[in-house]
Amino acid sequence: MKLSLAIGTVAAVIAAAAPTDVAPSIAEASQTPAAAPAAGGNRLRVPVDYYKLPNGLKVVLSRDTTSPTACVAVYYNIGFRNEPKDRTGFAHLFEHMMFQGSANLGKMAFIRLVESNGGLLNGSTRFDFTNYFQVVPSHVLEPILWAEADRMRSLDIDIENLKNQQEVVKNEVKVNVLNQPYGGFPWIDLPMSANENWFNAHNFYGDLAHLDAATVDEVRAFFKTYYAPNNAVLVVTGDFSPDEVKGWVQKYFGNVPSAKLPGSPDLKEPRQEKEKRAGRTDPLANRPALGIAYHAPNRLTPEWYAFGLLDEALAQGSDSLLYDELVRKKGMTGSVAAGINFGLGNMFDYSGPMLWIAQFFHDSSVSSDALLAAIDGIVEKVRKDGLDQSALDRARVKMRSDLYASLEQFAGFGRANLLASFALFDDDPSKINQLEDGFEKVTPALIQKTAEEYLRPGNRTVYVVTPGKTAAQGDKEAR
Amino acid sequence: MKPIFVFALALLAGMQQAAQQKPPATGAPKDFVLPAAKRFTLANGLPVTMVPFGQVPKAAIRLVVAAGNLYENKDEVWLADLTGNLMREGTASETADAVARGFAAMGGELGINVGPDNTSISTEVLSERAADAVRKLADVAQRPRLPESEIERVKGNLLRNLAISKSSPQAIAQERFAQLLYGEHPYGRVFPTEAMVKGYTLNQVQTFYRAHYGAARARLYVAGVFDAASLESAIKQAFEGWTGGKATDAPPLPPSSGRQFALIDRADAPQSTVMLGLRVPTASHKDWVALEVTDALLGGAFGSRITTNIRELKGYTYSPYSQLDAHPAQASWVEAADVTTNVTGASLKEIFLEIDKLRKEAPPAAELRGIQNNLAGVFVVQNASRTGVIGRLAFVDLHKVGPDYLSTYVKRVMAVTPEEVRRIANEYLTPDKMSLVVVGDEKTVKSQVTQWAQ
Asked: Complex ipTM, two decimals?
């Protein structure tokens, strides 16, 4: 009966383009992939069949016969980082438009095709990709692949659809941010405060005026620029015949024309040398909240693997160092929530600069400075001494368990998500099978060195939400 | 389906002349077999269900105890939550941090989730530690330390959660909606007062624990990859000595009260949070599956009528949904949406129009078939995980719907006829009995909703 949990999951909702009402099922459902450890070893071996069509479409097949279901996921290499500067929120608005019709599927027809074939579907917009996925009984794969190819080839929208989805997206921003206590905290607030480069630091949910300003021509141009097979990966996981699926992929996607892609923007962030402080007054909130962010090491580097284990040890679960100190010993907060790519993904599914974020809700009897001092007590000790052996061992076990969990998430979608990310960003989905090794190789010395550099006070941004009326509100009432 | 589809085609006709291609046909469905469960009952009466499932080397363990909010007295709201949270604070033999580290070392975490009917104590660990996890979980359930030293801190966390919850418009609406449906019954009490929580004593927690935790009120479920023989013997050893807990004693439901209305002011809110609905028969009733189908067609599925109308045609909202919420004695049906403030009345009008329409006209067979296929497919997906399997089995046990409920579910979904959907809507989804809650900017919204305010 505790409804406050919703606060922690608000961020996930930016994702939901289409069926928000499948979310309860998503939360409950997950699946077991045929990804048992190899005989004689302790390592995951996810089957990976990777190839490219002549038009550049990357294809990953990963078979799993645990249940008669399949997941189809199409990831486009365009996230909200690199949307146009005067059109914040455009990448996400565009994601909604992909559900509005294509040459052979009118409005609602895509959604009905999936649902009436027993499937669930959704889409989401993240830092570095926009994805569309369906979880379906495996015998309906062919029409689903046909439909995904149809909208990759021939998005077909008009002003009515656009106006409709502008209203829907504005309502999405209202329900998740504007009419919500802590709306946008910390998943929009901290990237905007900690990053210097506009691509990483703008409001990716979008200014309402920018959303209103979008035109049909802009939607079509965005589609033409980024939604080409040579900028995408198609992943199919589940219980299917590989030869049959390869035939359908060739038949339906093979003749989608490729496009000349624009160059990638420079996403680099400068090394942060001095702590930054930011915050706001939230008239809807009644308890203060503290968010902290550190720039994380570059993805897939040895330090990044070490940072993943630091995250496990510091902030994941009720055995973690921060939970033990802040919740159990000092009673300053009731929970610790944190992660790399917090609220919008995991430590694997992005490609540019990324933050590690942690959030804490507390009472006004505890100041944010006192909370920060308690956090510093733990962080500085880890920077100096690293982790003790038992904490490091637990971090590795938790990482392995969490990795299995993310692979199993939502009937194969979790696995498709990792395969798509490694195909899209690294051209090598088999990296999924190298992750455990990467974490295993981390030494206690590397843990300490990584903590020393990346958990520097100068690398940190602090964001404080203070409950109360804003200046404008105070004026209004005084008058 | 028809009106929408025609609308879509009409739009397209103006834009393109080429004939549309039809999607390719589907293949033949593969057999779906529910995982076989092994059931046995310990000497003390604790029912155990073990389901070998999947290939990933993990096991999910869940102990379900009839110790939810249903068993709280009127002035004890969230005493069940306080008890559950205090059970995380160590056992007779281990401190809280040692318990937490123990579960973490097995790749899991201790979860204690207090719900309206049950409290679940659960974990999901790496397979080789399944028997150890059962022992640890049994220790938490049977020998919680319930330390006096931690109660004020744990109450402080509950008070903070309470305050934060009550700043969210959805939670405010849910609280009032539950009150309107269930009155003074525990299902009608979503939130305690601050004073209530502050006043709780360790003695009250201990009394609640002694009355409601015990083999007589619990069920144990395990699903995943495990060594059955060693796990079974670990379960017997760990749980056979557990006694205590009175027989279940749910308070009776008050009669339904008919239409009630509440408008709660949220000054200058950009959206109104609306909830409307009523009490309906629950899972053990013969009409339950048909109710589920009706709910999905009306507002539950993304392609449902209400969602298509107020989101995809009108753009009034982002996240409308309807759902059935089942307790053992009673269920409720609700349609909820956060709609732009100036179309609050217009949204309600459309929602009621869709309900009225379904009560008068049986849906087209093709539309119904799509919804039935959807429910059948989602059922398979939901049974495709360890926790999904446990959730289904626990549902069957909670509602006492019989061992063949799951194996006949898809068949019963597919057997529902269009006329039956109309009858169900007509019989159970009666608008003049529906309660309605609006949380929004009163000065703008009030005049829009007067027609429903009695």
From this structure: 0.92
A144 φ, ψ (degrees, to nearest 5): -70, -45
Cβ-proximal residues to A431 (8 Å cutoff; 6+ apart), any chain? A300, A422
In A, minimum Cα distance to B319 occurs at A20
Tell me the C-alpha distance between B109 and B157, whole Å: 19
d(CA B138, CA B35) in angstroms, rounded, equals: 25
Task: Decide if A33 and B56 are in contact by the 8 Å CB cutoff.
Answer: yes
Q: Strand runs (DSSP E) across A77-175, as ranges?
A: 120-125, 130-137
Per residue in B341-370, is it b (16+ CB within 10 Å) or e — as a string?
bebbbebbebbbebbeebbeeebeeebbeb
Q: Does B205 touch chain A (CB under 8 A)?
A: no
Peptide bond into B270 cis (omega under 30): no
B82 conformational bin, left if phi > 0, alpha if psi -120 to 50, beta if neither: alpha
Q: Do A108 and B303 touch (CB under 8 A)?
A: yes
Q: Residue B122 forms beta bridges with which residues?
A: B62, B111
H runs (alpha helix) in A175-279: 189-194, 198-201, 208-213, 216-226, 242-253
pLDDT in tens, chain A (479 residues): 332 222 222 223 333 333 332 222 222 223 333 444 433 345 778 999 999 999 999 999 999 988 899 999 999 999 999 888 888 999 999 999 999 999 999 999 999 999 999 999 999 999 999 999 999 999 999 999 999 999 999 999 999 999 999 999 999 999 999 999 999 999 999 999 999 999 999 999 988 899 999 999 999 999 999 999 999 999 999 999 999 999 999 999 999 999 999 998 999 999 999 999 999 999 999 999 999 999 999 999 999 999 999 999 999 999 999 999 999 999 999 999 999 999 999 999 999 999 999 999 999 999 999 999 999 999 999 999 999 999 999 999 999 999 998 888 888 899 999 999 999 999 999 999 999 999 999 999 999 999 999 999 999 999 999 999 765 554 444 33
Q: Which of A20, A146, A147 sits opposite B318 (nearest CB)?
A: A20
Please report where in the chains the tokens 């996240």 appear, as a residue.
B319
Residue A343 CB contacts under 8 Å (≥ 6 apart), including other chains = A10, A11, A12, A186, A187, A357
Please give the model's pTM, rounded to 2 decimal places.
0.92
CA distances from B149 to A362, B82, B142, B156, B207 (A): 20, 14, 20, 13, 18
- The count of other CB atoms within 10 Å of the CB of residue A330 is 15
What whole-number distance in Å separates Cα of residue B210 and Cα of residue B154?
Answer: 19
Q: d(Cα A27, Cα A5) in Å, to the nearest integer? A: 13
Q: Residues of B with CB below 8 A from A404's CB?
A: 56-58
Quote the CA–CA distance of A104 and B8 in Å, as a whole number: 11
Any idea what the Cα angle at residue A295 is, between residues A293 and A301, rounded to 5°? 140
Residues of B (207-236) whose Cβ lies below 8 Å from A: none
**Given A136, A137, A361, which is nearest B160 (Cβ)?**
A361
DSSP per-residue letters across B345-411: HHHHHHHHHHHHHHHHSPPPHHHHHHHHHHHHHHHHHHTSSHHHHHHHHHHHHHHT--TTHHHHHHH
Q: Whose structure tokens read 């080409």? A: A228
Which of A63, A121, A319, A333 best tests the B interface by mutation, with the highest count of B CBs <10 A? A319
**CB of B70 closer than 8 Å to CB of B81:** no
Q: Residue by residue, what is the 3-state secondary structure of A397-412?
A: HHHHHHHHHHHHECCC
Query: B5 and A390 in contact by Cβ < 8 A?
Result: no
Question: Residue A395: which of A314, A278, A296 has the closest Cα?
Answer: A314
B452, B378 Cβ separation under 8 angstroms: no
Q: Which residues contact B293 (CB under 8 A, 6 or more apart)?
A: B368, B371, B372, B375, B413, B416, B421, B424
